[in-house]
């Protein structure tokens, strides 16, 4: 057995096997896969094999789309039939709201080129008369989709991998990982059978690998422990049952022209049904399915199952009999209750492991058969070429920070499982494990009616509503019950003054003799002079946007970096790894994550000075905040009452304003002072939703929507923040990419009762030309607004485009950048 390889993949389920295959296909010749038992012996063997396209995320839709196309090619390559039945996939809606969901999803699917059609109940009945349709509103149909045999597709990928030189070693368990500074030394133990259990023998070897990928399925917690990292990948029980033959189905299939039923998804009944040898398979996503293996998988659990819990799925079973009445007389033939790995948001963890070099994770797959092909393809791109063609951030393992615990992951994963078939409102907030991370002013905000959103564990007000208001009932695919409150809040900032809690911002302190040279190399804009601020970007090695920073220069070699709140661990990891690489060249650099030490209130609106002037302590309070003493894009240490404040004159809402960074332990004091001083001026509390709309009126790009690893800052149309006269990381690659797409702002004449959410497809005439990445309502223009990417020829101001919402095309026009106050007059206003 070889002991020195380029890449070692740990785990021979669908995911690990696909990764090994794609690494070889991408050109790496020395790839080895270790499997502690037999290939497919994890969750893969008992999967139902459905390949659902349906996913609200752009990246995941691409992954699923690749898998479905790739699996169709495997037989030709390997001679093995993976049993792909392209029967289509029928997603039924019992309510108008569910149809709204499908129409939003369909617009997203179109941005990735995924085909679909809508069907009426009559069309369904005419084609598949066994389905009861009188209580349906309609359905979404994917004709190119279906199901596959999970073990067969894995074996086909394994054969393809072997043909490309991959070494697959079974009955070897990876037991320890040591980074020697250049490569991983992986201790592997030969596994042997003992009394039906699989146990380690005394035989061990050490395999040296430049790169390691873990795809250890239900063993993720053991893997995390060995690596000394945290991974919120914990399985939950998942059941499906196989029914005996249904005589009516058998008869239906005998008739000429009748083909197999599509996979039938009755989302409102939390279940899926497909044909199986003349009978039916019923799979469910029921409430109260427990998490398992929080602390590891016992030796005795191999290709095993849990006991069926029929009581738990009784409602869904009855619902199946309602939907397909002929199923009621079928007996139970077989049952499966297996572990299905989950993560708190239902997305897998794919990408570089936190804090480690050349260690890649592919863990936490709940739709691992569907995702395996695409994950292998895009992860191999990431490893071999440095970046994937899609932005993998939404799957990055570092979207959860060190605050994450086993208890959190287990309870959140149970929730994610139960939520598979709920209505995926874009304004959804999930309740489990909350509140967990709260800023000190949380109780004060709650008392004022704050309706909180979840950001990286933090509670952050989305908007404020009157007493008795229920956020859950206010959610919608159209304008929800909260919309009117967000409108009032947005208007308050444009016309008066508003206060936003931005404590969740990620904050790093970078200082030391090497700090200036390092940041000059690490980011693409000029560094600010002392006391000033710049907006800038750290790029990937491929020249695309890795992180957006507001950089404040506190002293000659001391910088305060502010970035998006959702991405603390993701940003920290990239920054720290880059510092470690570059410190030998540039000199000593310290990096501190100070996120939880600083609270942030953003105060903005034309009356901001009126509020702050009454609080600020200074020999001449009336001039402290004037343009002369405190110009736009500068930082000053000021005192508001007894609170020392690092005040930064920027406003993400595009109005006169300051970010008030303050010691977290003084937050409540500062809050009370601001409330008191603000009262005579009508200070309004404002949430993240209004802020999101306001920043679109200013064309301010947001990280995770307009800004990500699939576009360069030049494609984001931000040349004013890119200093081409200096050298910086990713510059040559950014320039080589040119401008393939361009970010634009659009004013939209949409439906009267809805705004876009930022996932919709854009058309020019009959041609698909791009997609929205943000959407909302503009109080300044009294209509919908959005931002997105189009081909450069369609980015010209005045270009008339169409946005697809609710299966209709609506007029949209490309505006100039910053349609509201393009000259920044209100932000710079003196006083
Ligand atoms: C009842 C049920 C139905 C499902 N239906 C579907 C479906 O219809 N469609 C779908 O897409 N998904 C479905 N799934 C989910 C799907 O089964 C999983 O997402 C998928 O199998 C995960 O594949 P994997 O390769 O990540 O993990 P696994 O298949 O669990 O593979 C991990 C492998 O790693 C090995 N391993 C672990 N640790 C080590 C180590 N230290 N050294 C060496 N080897 C190690 C294990 O032995 C195992 O073989 C279903 C799941 C269940 C439970």
UniProtKB/TrEMBL annotation:
Gene3D superfamilies from the UniProt entry: Aminomethyltransferase beta-barrel domains, D-Amino Acid Oxidase, subunit A, domain 2, FAD/NAD(P)-binding domain, Probable tRNA modification gtpase trme, domain 1
Entry-linked Pfam families: DAO, FAO_M, GCV_T, GCV_T_C
Start and end residues of each FAD dependent oxidoreductase central domain: 385-439
UniProt KW Oxidoreductase keyword: yes
Record domain Aminomethyltransferase C-terminal: where: 742-821
Transmembrane domains' residue ranges: none
Keyword Oxidoreductase recorded: yes
GO molecular-function terms, A-Z: oxidoreductase activity
Boundaries of every FAD dependent oxidoreductase domain copy: 7-382
Domain GCVT N-terminal, first and last residues per copy: 442-726
UniProt keywords, alphabetically: Oxidoreductase
Superkingdom assignment: Bacteria
InterPro entries assigned: FAD-dep_OxRdtase, FAD/NAD-bd_sf, FAO_M, GcvT/YgfZ/DmdA, GcvT/YgfZ_C, GcvT_C, GCVT_N, TrmE/GcvT-like
Family, per entry: Belongs to the GcvT family.
Name of this protein: FAD-dependent oxidoreductase
